[in-house]
Amino acid sequence: MAALAGLPIVRRGDAIGSLVIEALQRESRVLKQQDVIVVAQKIISKAEGRVVALDSVTPGELAREWAGKTQKDPRLVELILSESKRVVRHRPGVLIVEHRLGFVMANAGVDQSNAGPAGQGEHAILLPVDPDESAERLRAEVFAATGTDVAVVINDSFGRPWRRGTMGIAIGAAGLPVILDLRGQPDMFGRELAVSISGFADEIAAGASLVMGQGAEGQPVVIVSGLVWSEPATTARELVRPEAEDLFR
Amino acid sequence: MAALAGLPIVRRGDAIGSLVIEALQRESRVLKQQDVIVVAQKIISKAEGRVVALDSVTPGELAREWAGKTQKDPRLVELILSESKRVVRHRPGVLIVEHRLGFVMANAGVDQSNAGPAGQGEHAILLPVDPDESAERLRAEVFAATGTDVAVVINDSFGRPWRRGTMGIAIGAAGLPVILDLRGQPDMFGRELAVSISGFADEIAAGASLVMGQGAEGQPVVIVSGLVWSEPATTARELVRPEAEDLFR
What we know:
Low-confidence stretches of chain A: none
Oligomer: homodimer
Mean pLDDT of chain A: 91
Number of strands of chain A: 12
Number of helices of chain A: 6
CATH superfamily of the largest domain in chain A: CofE-like
């Protein structure tokens, strides 16, 4: 598990796959099958032009109402609500929503940090339109250029109920099973394992987030090698627990 | 990040520190400062004798009541309740509680898998009495034997609201800051980072859980190298969000 050095600052329209391959070549690193390329959501969103100038946003009545309740910038709240199905919790400074993709998260993932150079007005970054599709596109770019069958995870930092601090979570995935279902495999003493559906892509996202966070700044791509799986690939949408199964909605 | 091979099956009274050091020596591996030894909760509990024969448990009235509601073994429910402050959610097959240590988790972490050889009656494993203290003890054993200042994380797999699959989480820690508070550090464009309290020990626990899960069976110790920190050490208790801050209790 190692961060990729030498990645340039990502701009709108960039093909992340090409940037990753060029950076790997500069390091003389070769991708292997089942390597997982973990990419921070922020650079995917930037490449896809999901950056909005706050000056261009006109908050509606609902946004102004929630902005009052949470003491947040009404333009930011307008963007958050435009990305959300519903507000789950709020208090001053905090707006937790169900994102249109099903993620329960703070501010619908709308982020003001790193959005662009100072002096050009305030910007915000939204999540990619379809992070699973973004992951699949990156995977296809890498396959086209190298012939190597890698997997891709797009991660973002999520807060959690009951625990302090954020953890990396997979919001997009391609080329790997996001969940490993170990039910039915006997444990060391022959008894069936009871609870053993593991959030494989989320654990990859968290481990990579650890490495991303270790740099002084800007280590948005991490390559995870050495994992193995035999299950068919699924997408990060599968990690969202269906409402009917969920005891916490 | 690599699993430690050759660890024997852990028995009551074992000093995990000695087992780890012996296994490292067989591999000619040397621990470095700020290496993190991640240990699965299960072997800590076994070493500390936190294994209970279900035949020895007499369920009380409350346990029988909850067993009826959840269709679980009343003896198991008795153990779960004895480890819990309160029941948070339930449905058939599922009992989510607030553990006496503050963790919101399924079955208070009481686990029937891997508890012991078949034919000796059914057993269950409880969480360590004080996982932070268990971590500190292991850290002290390693320091006494090697003079190297390592960190220790004890992890367990937790389900999460809203998302499918479990993730590794830190239930005990010693020798490292469990949370990294990056607030106030400027981002790449000089703006202050907004949300950047990261659950450092939880991300370590999740990444290690990924590696533990990759073995056919029984890879309960993972060594994570290459991380750096300068903040003072805290304990895993710090990861439990105080009730007053929590929007989901």
